[in-house]
Amino acid sequence: MEKITSLNFPVFEHSLIIKSNKNERLPNGDLMLEERIFEELEGIAINNTAGDFSDFLTLSSHKIYKKIIRIKNFVGVLQTKKGLTLEILPKIFSQSKTDSSVEENRKILLNMLRTLRKIPFKISNMTKLKTEHIPLIEVFISMFLEELTIITKKGLRAEYIEVEENANFFKGKLSFQNHIKTNIVHKEKFYIKYDEYSFNTASNRVIKKTLIYLEKYTRIFENSHRIKEFINLFSEIPESVNHKIDFSQITYNRNNKELFNIHQWCKVFLDNKSFINLKGDSLVFALLFPMEKLFESYVYHNIKKQLDNQYLITSQDRTYQLIEHPSSFGLIPDVVIKNKSTIWILDSKWKLLNTDKKNLGISQTDLYQVFAYLKKYSSNKVALIYPWNRNLNIENLKNNTLYFDKDKKEQLKILFYNLIEDNLETLLDDFLIDK
């Protein structure tokens, strides 16, 4: 099978993609693409100007470069037919003078992805792999292969499947209507139904199809070698002709529930199962995630890990409506923390604040939102948590406590999560203290 030649570039959120006569990643993280590849990406942006994808690639003009594309808000992998693979990483800052590296950002992104509930990234064996040093798409392929290794340790799985055929022998039970219709002049035949123990199952077919798909796109030797070994293991299994139909035939019970994750991975690759659906004939593969949702998931996961033994913690709580009669405008705070006497509300925002801006650049809409939480939950302390970034002057952040009332009883904390140094425990200690 012919391999597709690929240009693989890691870029960060908010990076610029510039139309040029060469393909090159610039020292500041921006990317230059030759005309034919730039125009392919431009076409993808134009085809997705509405819906979930509308705020991912934005087209604009530049006084020097003329046409540019800006990457916004989404992270993950995008691959095109002309061979471009964009690995889009979150823009995460270090407090040191040196910006965090591609490897460091990739590692943090993978940690974030593992906290998502509906995508199968929770593979413990991945800790032994140097995932921060290989392209993101190869990490995803490695995760799939690790999961497949787990479920095939004892060999391929077979199951009883129903077979219908017009045979010269009688077995199982007669399919009476089909027998009359088919064998009215063939008295020697029997149109029968019976169960056969077979490896040719819907599950094995979609796995085989996924392996063949990935064989074409992997670029590193270890993944390529492992895929070939698995294809050999599945050599007697035909690949799925229609994987959507095969997926619909798979049901789970106590005997096969461990197959759920591998099927989720198959859907990721065969259906581009992501948070968004992309349009465009130029796309080969896209697995993209909105950073706002990813940050929410990561914050909740780490808060729960640290505080679960001491507090009742809920995510995306839906207890209250902004309008009670009739019920409408649901309030959904990211994290609600409770003990016997107190409620704390925390909302995460993937926005880069700046101490040089008025009010740090905090959105007034965000303030209205947390004020509504405070009132509806009868709480006296809410927090907005933002990612730490280089535009924050520590000296100007000594007082990060604001008040909604003159008596200083209704408190708002502005918290900055340093994702590299992981200062969440300190932030929570400060937020939860009764004062």
UniProtKB/TrEMBL annotation:
Domain of life where this protein originates: Bacteria
InterPro entries tied to this protein: McrC
UniProt protein name: McrC family protein
Record organism: Neobacillus driksii
